[in-house]
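User: What would this chain look like folded?
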Amino acid sequence: GLLKEGFSMQTGAGGTSHADVADIRRIMVERGIHARFASGGITAQYVEMLEAGLVGSLQDVQDFDLDAVASLSRNSKHEAITAAQYGSPDYHPAPVVDGLDFVVLGATEIDLDINVNVTTDSEGRIIGGSGGHADTAHGAKVSVVVTNLVKARLPIVMEKVTCVTTPGIDVDVLVTERGIAVHPRRTELLERLRGSGLNILTMQELMERAHTITGIPVRPAQTGRIVALVRYRDGSILDVVRVK
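Assistant: Here's the prediction, encoded as structure tokens.
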């Protein structure tokens, strides 16, 4: 119900979430609707939508390609914003993320409590910064995580993630190629999707499906010294990263 005239959106840095933009654009053209703004990491796809009049403005906190950089230099509707304007609950009274209707994000791991990890791999090695993952998941009306159920012979859905980047309370939907899970607190969303014909499962069922493919993996122990702290947007510590 959110793809309607004047909506706002963001997609994450993952390949799957980027691929969604083309489908969203197609739906917009078919329905004759326009987005109020798109935010976050800007790509050529968003630039094309802006120039086609499908998006009112781009709220740009970072660029993912040179087309986005060029657009920022020539188009007054392509607006550069600071990280504080974008997502800080402390330094800006109305961060952009709080105005999002939906966000589509990726995941390295996601667990039965719908906590998401994009900070480390399953061995506990840091793979990069999380960007606005937790900020957008918290701020958007609906936060959607998209991922393969299995990657590199490893199940992505597990009992407990190696590292919590974004707490499950801020994640509404997980979409995989083998089924979709909805956070139990989003009862109205679950009811809306039940009659959609989509394959709606629980997180437990998704994990069990993954295990039929991969088996149950042996998780490495994370017992070494702490090398990094994972902070939530309010400054609280969500998790730690340790050496083996």
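The longest helix spans residues 15-31. If you want, I can go into more detail on any region.
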